[in-house]
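Contributing new complexes? Match this layout with 1-deoxynojirimycin.
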Amino acid sequence: MSSMSNEQRETMPSCEERARELLGRMNLAEKIGQLSQVNCDFHELNEAIRAGGIGSVLNEVNVDRVNELQHVAVNESRLGIPLLIGRDVIHGFKTIFPIPLGQAASWNPELVQQAAAISAAEAASTGVNWTFAPMIDITRDPRWGRIAESLGEDPVLCSQLGSAMVRGFQGAEPAEVGSIAACAKHFAGYGAAEGGLDYNTTNISEHELRNVYLRPFKAALDAGVMTFMAAFNDLNGVPASGNAFLMKQVLRDEWDFDGMVVSDWDSVHQLSVHGYTEGDRDAALAAASAGVDMEMASRTYADHLPSLIEAGAIAEQDIDQMVHNVLVTKFRLGLFENPFTDPQALPPVLDAAYLEVAKRAAVESCVLLKNSEETLPLDRGQVSRIALIGTLANDGYEQLGTWVFDGEALHSQTCLEALQNLTGDEVEVHWAAGLEHPRSYQHGKIPEAVELAANCDAIVVVAGEESILSGEAHCRADIGLPGAQAELIAALAETGKPLILVVMAGRPLTLGNVIDRVDAVLYAWHPGTMGGPAIAELLLGEQSPSGKLPVTFPAHVGQIPIYYAHKNTGRPPSDDSITHIDNIDGGAAQTSLGMSAFHLDTGFRPAFPFGFGLSYADFEYRDIEISANRWRIGDSVEISATVHNRGSRDATEVAQLYVRDLVGSVTRPVRELKGFQRIPLLAGESRRVSFTLTSAELAFFGNNMNSITEPGRFEAWIGGDSTATLGTDFELLAAESAG
Ligand code: NOJ
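Output block (do not edit by hand):
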């Protein structure tokens, strides 16, 4: 807590007033200095800070050095303005949580918030006061490496989890010790990069942008996010970092955002590389005019804003507004009161309580995709020798995933260690690599693994991707299991032993017929520091899986983009459509194909739908009810169903509500998630789950780009995934027709 009493707080001028007062004392060089963010290795950094030339430093996490930089800023520069210290704290700092896509599979906002709060506290103990997270780009393309950092394909799920992250990072009060500023990124449309290729162009119609891509950003803003980051991508012909529609019209004018916007790394300079501006001076003008307050890494503002102002291309009062946005952020963070960091004021990193939350997050992020004949959980009475195969089962680094600057492999608990610890003398756990590394095509180590497996009662193969295969600039065109892992698994299957596949990966993989070869699949993403214990407890039944997919898993890479909330088309496929190229009769008339929207070689279904995830329990949904079949705009309705745990184990189910708007002035998706709840159910227990649906949740952006709610007929379903069949319907009446 900052040391101010409530009384002192009340008599203090507001952050805005303080920013204005300070601004009045600044010269132009100092103003432009506040708009510059440089990396910690910047040439003669102390001198630049002392001269008032730097507003923010990124990537310095040595607390003594951070305190030294703040000392120079606060005590040696003319105006004593503290620094924003930025860092990519994406899914943990020292305690690493599952990658964001994995956290999204928990469908648990409270847990995601807790993980962000811990990440903030650990980072804050080194002096970091600003994270570049959450990344709330909707993505529907698993080839894109940054899907790992995302919260998946759905605007409602992403909005809820992204907001939870904002609340976690920023705490109840951003000026409290242990809270840091969050950053909603990347504004906007970055997740729609063509071909799943990072940095690529995006073309998104304005209503799609507003109905899908912008929604999580609005939610983050409503949750109080203090900063936004402009994206790298070209959006409809205007790169996001120079896009006034996004940053001025939407963010400032429509949404009234009063915090600060930072560019992405070099993205102002890159406006010219895009071919949008000619050289850095032009780029600085475009970015500043479009609403980028602070420039990250490149130096176009420092180099060119003075002459642009001088030439009258930018008004000094526009610069003042940008500086105000930066200063206000610093005041809100309490940096003027508490610029220095005392690491002792916070719990030590990797605190036992933090690790416990990391384990819970990893448990809840795992998704059980297949479990034939209840292969899982492993029964310690029947299984006395486990063959654990794969380097990923025994590699502290690779289980951490992408964007881990500060987490260390040595703190990770691997599957091998955890299974050995958990089973003690009861079960022998034997490990073999199977392959040199997951990308290897060499078969040399396979026979040894198969021999080991043949002498055990069950095989657990941990396969997938190393950390380096996902993340920024790490896209894949083929998203199958890398290397010879499929061959390894096929060879293990030949033993006839129960075969469990645990997947560690930064994206949905197309597992192809590997799924048919194994008895069970547990999708663990990159589970973080505590991945091993989480997976071990799930395998041995100390926990039941409850994760649900936050993104559709394609059956084949060629189906991409494939997502549940697609439009119907004029020719939707059905089960009557011929769904395989092998079944086509060459002489038959074209119409015999069904003439509908599916791929001849893969059909129209994904491998696993959005929202899907099995459990060790068996959940049944029945008796859906709606409180009114006709209701009017402005009202709400309750939609409920019974969820019954028919199984013999206690477990948690994520119940989901989907709605379809049958007719819209702009066509609506075939289904949209409207709510979800985690429901713990004892074996045999039944419960009613009830969702309140307001007419506001049925609003969408129509052709005139205003949010509208249209009367008409709707369908609704409650179930355990996006293919739920337990449905009802209702009619929404115009407000004035009520009565
Ligand atoms: C580039 C990435 O796009 C962005 O997400 C990140 O925060 C910055 N680099 C800073 O590392």
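Reviewers usually confirm one structural detail per submission. For this one: The radius of gyration is 27 Å.
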